[in-house]
Design goal:
With 75 residues, this protein is mostly helical. It has one domain. The chain is 40% helix and 0% strand. The chain has three helices and no strands. 12% of the residues are buried.
Amino acid sequence: MIVSPPIHYSIDTIRDEVRQIVEGGLIARTQSIYVLCEFFPAREWLSIECELERCDYLLRDRIGDLISSEKWTND
């Protein structure tokens, strides 16, 4: 059996993935970052968690804090 190494997620990649999940209505910006573990493969979650911690995010922080760099345009 061939086992591939876990994917390394950059903080930008994580933010992009999370934005898609939020925009899809699967989670709310007010939920804690920890709920994201349901949307990533378990073997990749450790890498994601380490990257979040490296960038000073805690699992209890809000998802809105993670993706707060969104750009808004006036309609």
